Amino acid sequence: MNANCTIPQMNCFVHSPHHWRTPPFWPERYGQFCFCQNSNNNTYWCIRTVNSTHNFLYCEFITEFISYYDINADPYQLHNIIWSIPLGVLEQLSRQLELLRTCHGYAQCEHYSSSVWYLPFIESDDNSIN
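C-alpha cells predicted for Sulfatase N-terminal domain-containing protein (130 residues):
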C-alpha cells in the first residue's frame, strides 16, 4: 500500500481492516486501502430525476468516473448500471448536468430542471419558465 494516500483536491485517508466496527467488515486478507471522498469539495455533480416514468441518479466525478443508479430497482445504490444506458441518453444527461452546473438565477436554473431543459432559455421580463 502506498503510504502516501493523497490526491490533489480530494479528502483522502487510509482504512484498515480494524477500522470497521459493524458488519459488513472489511476482510483482513484485503489489507488497508486509500479512500478518497469527493463530497467535501464539490468534486462531483448529480442529477436526480423522479417522475412517473423515472427514478434515477446520474453523477459525474472530477476523476471522470460516471455513475447511474435506478433507484426503484436499487434503492441503496449498490449497482452502478452506467454500462446499460444508451450512449445518446448519457450524452443528454451530461449536457443537462453541464447546463445546471453553469446556470444563473432562479428562472434559468428552473428551466434547465424542467422537462423542456433542451430548449434554449429565453429570459423574459416576468422571469417565467420558457
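The beta strands are 11-15, 33-37, 44-50, 55-61, 66-70.
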